[in-house]
């Protein structure tokens, strides 16, 4: 067993990764859903930076159980993804999806629960002086004379592939992006004839005019004015399939068809809509998916959708990102996904291109000439939008958003020639025929450009003469931990699972387990991997690193393996009890207060009620009372040990303690405000005004908001089995 190069115990999945450095169409019934409330509030996960809809919860649970869960949470089902057994719930206004997801995951009642994360288009950069080329520049442009350097002999060498007959003919590429302009002269002929809007029950459009009118109406009215931010999907689609007709520009796979599914409407979008967009593409004939979008952190719904695609033999491509640093973001980080980095005109890594051990190949992404939307109505008139009046419908633009579709187009060329290949073989063909000299490791892999720049001349030769790479493999890992009874049970709380290829630059794949303790790695390279497991995920439990069980060993992925039977790994440490016993319960009222002594500390206790949910109301939210005897003039320091206590972080609780007299009245300072702990020391200092019984009241700070004085059941809730604390009463 190798010694790990980093400590699993203290790291989350993203941190662990950073330290490692044509199917038959499926008809899905229209789901029954409620309309979501307008203007859903957005929140930010302070630990991961991921933005999410505060009242929307995504749950992986079969339909009957999902209905029951919604009722228990006093929630409404506002969206469904039946292929994945996923529903989106709208929670009551007082609840936070991050908190509710953590509780459900700890209970193990769902396969997973997650806040409804938002995704963003990868930010791109236009060349200021040529944001849109003049009309004259677009007249009769041909591949040999226009400034479309990306496909020339010094870069991707597309002509060699086309001359060999490899154009992507017969392949449909799904463009998961903001709505592409299917009326554009360079795209009209290569549109598949179908486009999808995933909102609500979802809707398929089969005419250009109806699709354009939908786009026009995204602002609430069809008035000939399209939001000018809608242009990304048009540029992306043209990268892949712009027609080779001697006019305008040409895409890398001009014989292929593109098929748009909308995910930005406009701005940000929830990951459930993205998953629906992906699944619709898979179920409607797409053999390749392009994803020029991303977001921080791990999202299980996107992982499930990508696995659905890969297991149906659909190749998935994602842009690496434009962060200029080494990091992992969804979906580029996911197993089986081809992550594409960007190169500049000199075949060097673009300064903005995200890098890491998950990068597969690189393609041009700086100042590439692509289509801009024109939105041409059937009567020849135009809708206004991103391209100004008189604009050509072309632009110079930069970002991995465009190296990604050059890569997706390359996948279309491969599958047009060899539709029998699986997603891993498609990936490996690109890697084995890439030009590694563009990177820092001239003979192989580097973190900046992966295996190098895509070369279609080399690829064409390989497609003609072979051999083909071996098929990819799939492995399913199950994590078990030793429970309270000494037997091994599935780790129901999320575990981080990493597969690390050999060498300092070996490919790295990461995933999290579901409530069955299972993590799937689909369409990855066969061979031996170092396996690293850490459980539970401390972002879910709020526990300490020393509570985390870890495992470092080996696992072998076999070519052609479907991964139907899990490989089990058992850990002696890392069991998580979602329902800990509080030795002082029930102590939720003054009448049931438990006695404590001055000069002593309490045992570990919890602000947690396993029976709490939005249906029961805030009167079921946990608050703890203790009683002690004191004398007039007695000076005490009441110390609250929680996650912010400076000497030792404890659990997840941001706590507050109040002191009440024998009549239950809160003691106040000279300004009439309730006494509360110092925000730095977590110590409530008090001089007792009289002899008698006193009560201490402990709860979550946001729940027992001190500005509300005597009203304890106010504020937002924090109901977690990791809301740990203890009190210490010190005589001064």
UniProtKB/TrEMBL annotation:
MF (Gene Ontology): serine-type endopeptidase activity
Gene3D superfamilies tied to this protein: 2.60.120.380, Immunoglobulins (2.60.40.10), Peptidase S8/S53 domain (3.40.50.200)
InterPro entries xrefs: Fervidolysin-like_N_prodom, Ig-like_fold, Ig_Fls_DR_A0283-like, Peptidase_C_arc/bac, Peptidase_S8/S53_dom, Peptidase_S8/S53_dom_sf, Peptidase_S8_His-AS, Peptidase_S8_Ser-AS
Domain Peptidase S8/S53: 168-452
Domain Fervidolysin-like N-terminal prodomain: start-end pairs: 39-116
Keywords recorded for this protein, A-Z: Hydrolase, Protease, Serine protease, Signal
Domain Fervidolysin/DR-A0283-like Ig-like per the UniProt entry, residue ranges: 468-556
Keyword match Mitochondrion: no
Signal peptide extent: 1-21
Keyword Hydrolase: yes
Catalytic residues (positions): 177, 232, 401
One Pfam family linked to the record: Fervidolysin_NPro-like
Domain of life according to the entry: Bacteria
Record-annotated Peptidase C-terminal archaeal/bacterial domain positions: 622-699
Gene Ontology terms: biological process: proteolysis
Family statement: Belongs to the peptidase S8 family.
The protein's name: S8 family serine peptidase
Organism from which the protein derives: Deinococcus arboris
């Amino acid at each position: 067993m190798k010694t790990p190069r980093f400590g699993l115990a203290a790291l989350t999945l993203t941190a662990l990764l950073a330290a490692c450095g044509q199917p038959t169409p499926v008809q899905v019934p229209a789901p029954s859903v409620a309309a979501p409330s307008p203007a859903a509030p957005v929140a930010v996960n302070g630990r991961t930076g991921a933005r999410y809809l505060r009242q929307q919860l995504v749950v992986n649970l079969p339909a009957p159980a999902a209905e029951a869960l919604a009722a228990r949470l006093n929630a409404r089902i506002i969206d469904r993804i039946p292929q994945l057994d996923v529903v989106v719930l709208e929670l009551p206004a007082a609840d936070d999806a991050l908190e509710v997801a953590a509780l459900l995951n700890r209970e193990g009642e769902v396969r997973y629960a997650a806040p409804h994360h938002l995704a963003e288009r990868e930010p791109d950069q236009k060349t200021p002086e040529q944001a849109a080329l003049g009309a004259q520049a677009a007249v009769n442009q041909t591949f040999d004379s226009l400034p479309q350097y990306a496909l020339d002999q010094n870069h991707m060498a597309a002509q060699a592939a086309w001359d060999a007959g490899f154009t992507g003919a017969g392949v449909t590429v799904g463009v998961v992006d903001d709505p592409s302009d299917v009326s554009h002269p360079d795209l009209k002929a290569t549109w598949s004839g179908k486009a999808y809007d995933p909102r609500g029950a979802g809707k398929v459009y089969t005419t250009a005019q109806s699709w354009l009118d939908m786009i026009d109406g995204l602002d609430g009215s069809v008035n000939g004015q399209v939001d000018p931010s809608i242009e990304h999907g048009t540029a992306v689609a043209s990268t892949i399939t712009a027609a080779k007709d001697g006019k305008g520009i040409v895409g890398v796979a001009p014989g292929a068809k593109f098929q748009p599914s909308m995910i930005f409407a406009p701005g940000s979008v929830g990951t459930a809509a993205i998953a629906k967009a992906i699944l619709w593409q898979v179920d409607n004939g797409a053999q390749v998916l392009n994803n020029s979008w991303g977001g921080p952190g791990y999202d299980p719904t996107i992982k499930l959708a990508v696995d659905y695609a890969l297991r149906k033999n659909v190749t998935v491509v994602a842009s690496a990102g434009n962060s200029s640093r080494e990091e992992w973001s969804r979906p580029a980080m996911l197993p089986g996904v081809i992550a594409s980095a960007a190169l500049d005109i000199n075949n060097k890594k673009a300064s903005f291109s995200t890098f890491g051990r998950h990068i597969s190949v690189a393609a041009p992404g700086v100042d590439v000439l692509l289509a801009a939307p024109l939105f041409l109505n059937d009567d020849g008139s135009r809708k206004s939008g991103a391209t100004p009046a008189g604009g050509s419908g072309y632009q110079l633009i930069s970002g991995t958003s465009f190296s990604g579709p050059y890569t997706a187009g390359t996948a279309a060329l491969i599958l047009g020639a060899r539709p029998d290949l699986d997603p891993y073989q498609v990936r490996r063909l690109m890697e084995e025929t890439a030009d590694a000299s563009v990177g820092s490791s001239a003979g192989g892999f580097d973190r900046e450009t992966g295996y190098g720049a895509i070369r279609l001349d080399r690829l064409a030769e390989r497609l003609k003469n072979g051999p083909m790479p071996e098929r990819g493999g799939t492995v399913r890992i199950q994590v078990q931990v030793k429970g309270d009874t000494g037997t091994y049970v599935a780790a129901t709380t999320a575990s981080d699972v990493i597969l690390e290829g050999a060498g300092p630059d070996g490919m790295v794949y990461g995933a999290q387990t579901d409530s069955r303790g299972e993590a799937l790695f689909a369409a990855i390279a066969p061979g031996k991997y170092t396996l690293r497991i850490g459980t539970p995920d401390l972002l879910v439990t709020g526990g300490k690193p020393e509570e985390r069980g870890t495992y470092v060993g080996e696992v072998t992925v076999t070519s052609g393996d479907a991964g139907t039977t899990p490989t089990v790994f058992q850990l002696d440490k890392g069991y998580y009890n979602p329902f800990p016993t509080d030795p002082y319960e029930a102590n939720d009222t003054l009448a049931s207060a438990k006695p404590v002594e001055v000069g002593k500390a309490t045992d570990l206790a919890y602000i947690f009620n396993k029976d709490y949910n939005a249906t029961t109301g805030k009167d079921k939210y946990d608050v703890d009372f203790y009683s002690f005897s004191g004398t007039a003039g007695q000076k005490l320091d009441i110390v609250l040990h929680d996650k912010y206590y400076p000497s030792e972080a404890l659990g997840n609780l941001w706590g507050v303690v109040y002191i009440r007299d024998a009549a239950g009245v809160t003691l106040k300072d000279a300004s009439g405000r309730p006494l509360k702990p110092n925000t730095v020391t977590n110590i409530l200092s008090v001089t007792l005004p009289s002899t008698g019984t006193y009560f201490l009241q402990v709860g979550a700070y946001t729940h027992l908001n001190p500005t509300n004085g005597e009203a304890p059941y106010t504020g937002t809730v924090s109901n977690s089995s990791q809301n740990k604390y203890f009190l210490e009463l010190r005589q001064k």
